[in-house]
Design brief:
By secondary structure, chain A is mostly helical. Helices cover 76% and strands 1% of the residues of chain A. Chain A has 14 helices and two strands. Chain B has ten helices and ten strands. Chain B has a six-stranded mixed β-sheet, sandwiched between helices. Chain B has a four-stranded antiparallel β-sheet with strand order 2-1-4-5, with helices on one face.
Amino acid sequence: MNPQALARSRDFDHRGRAWYVDRAVTVFVFIGGTSAILFIGGIFAFIAREGLGFVFSEFDAGEFFGSIAWRPTSALDATYGALALIVGTASITGLAMVVSIPFSLAAAVFIGEFARGRVRETLKVLVELLAAIPSVVWGFIGFSIMNSLIIDLFDVPIGLNVLNAGIILGLMAAPIMTTIAEDALKAVPDGYREAAEALGATRWQVIRKVVIPAAKNGLVAAVLLGVGRGFGETMVVLMASGHSINLPDSVFDSVRALTATIAAELGETAVGSDHFRALFTLGILLFMVTFAINLAADTIMRGIRRKGERGRP
Amino acid sequence: MAEPAAAPAPAAIATRGLNLWYGDFQALFDVNLHVKQGIITSLIGPSGCGKSTLLRSCNRINERLGYVRTTGSIEILGQDIYAPEVELVQVRKQVGMVFQRPNPLPLSIRDNVSFGHRLHARGRRVSRSRKEELVEDALRKVLLWDSVKDRLDTLATELSLEAQQKLCIARLLPVKPAVLLMDEPCSALDPKGTEAVEELIWELRGEFTILIVTHNMAQARRASEETVFMLIGKVIEHGLTEDIFLNPQHRQTADYIEGRYG
C-alpha cells in the first residue's frame, strides 16, 4: 500500500513525550528567567513598605543626613542621625578602592597582556578562588591578624579601624574587579595589538595607548562593580571597623558602617518600632546607592558590547 | 633571459638559510631570498606554503605567538634583524606592514596616521603644524585626504574597508620605513577597492621596497616587477614577473600558474 495513504490527520496531531517535555522545560526556564524581575520588584516593595512609613511620619532629613547622633535605643530622646554611618561606609569604601583599583587593574593587565599559557590559566583560577573566600573569613583575618599588625606597625591603641576594614575590603573586592577588568581587556580585538606592535610600539605602549583606551568602559564598569561590592559588604566592616559611631579624623579611627548597623541591630528591635523602621531607611539608602552603581556599570558594559559589534576590525 | 641575481642592486631583504618552526611544525625550509631595493616583489603560492610566514618574519611580528623558533638570518638593508643587539622597535621602524584585514586602531583618523610617528619621536617635541603637515602629506599620498580632511577626528574604524586599508598604508608613511610588507592587502576589499589600493601600491613603487603576498595571480602579474613562487615552505622560483608567468623554469611553478593546484 502506498505509505502516503497511511498518513492521516491524526498522525500530525500526535503529541509525543518530547512535546510535553519541551513544553515543561519552556515553562520552567521562563519562570526561572523572569523571576529576577519578580524578586527585584518584591524587594523594592518590601523595603519600601517597612521603611517608607518612617520616612513619611518621623523622618527628619536634616537629622538623618546632618547629625551623627544615632541613638535609637534612648528611652527619652531617640535620635536617628545617620551621618556618621554614611561617612563610615564611605571612608571604608573609599580606602578599599584606593587599595583595590591599582592592585586589580595591574593584576588584570598582567594576566591579560603579559602572562602566557599555563601561568595565565593558573592565575585566573587562583583569582577566581580568591573571589570565593567567604566574607566572614576576610573579617576574621581583619579581626585577628590585621588588628595586631596595625597596632604593632603604627603604634596606635586600636587596630580595628578604617585602615583595617579598608584594606581587607579592598583585598576582597580586588578579585572580582580583576576578573571583570581582564574580561574587558580580552574583549579588545588582537588585531589592534598586532597593528600597534607592527608600527613599533613596545608592549607597554600597546597597553597604554591602544588596549586600555579601547577597554576603558569595561575597566570603569569593573571599578564601579567593586565600589558597589564594597558599599554593600557587611561582615568585614562589622568585624574589622571597630563598629563605633564616630566621624573619623584619620584612618586610625574606628567607624561604623551602614550595613554593619543594620546587621547588628535588626535582631534586637521590635518589628514595626521606630528603630526597626529607621534601620529599613538605612536599607533603602544602601539599596538605592548600590542599585544606581550597578545600573551604571551595567549600562556602560552594554554600551561597549554594542560598540564592539559595530567597530570590530 | 634576465637572471635577477645578476643585477648588482643591493638587497632590501636578504634571507640566508632561514628555517622556521611553529612548535614542532616546520613552516619554512632553508629559504634564501634576495629582494631588490625599490621594486615590488610578489610572493605567490598555494595556501599554507609559508608565504605569509616568510613575510611576517621580516618584521619579526611572528614572534608575538611565542612558540616560534627561527634559525638562519634575515638582513634588512644589510643589518641582521635577528642579531641579539637589535631592538624590535627599530626593526619595525624600518619595516612597515599592511595586514590582510584593514586594522586601523580605534582612534581618530588623525591619531591613526600620527601614531607610528609619535612612537618614534621618542619624547622629542613635534610642533603642531608639523604634525598636521605629516598627517596631510600621508593622507594625500594614499589619495584619502580629500574625502577625510573634514572629519579627521572621527573614528577610523568607521571608514569603509577600502578607506581603512588606505589609512593603514598612510600611517606607515610618516615613519619613513625602507620596506613595506603587505599580506594580501586587497583580499578583504571589493573589486573597486582592490583596484584603488593596487593603484596606490603601484604609486609607491620606487620610494619603498614592497614585498606583497598575494593569492591572486592576476594581481601578482599586473602589480609586481619580480615574483617569488613558494611551495611547502620552500622558495621554488624567483624571477622577473613576466618570466615567471610566461616562461617558468620549474614544472611546479608552471602547474600552479596554470591553475592545476592551489
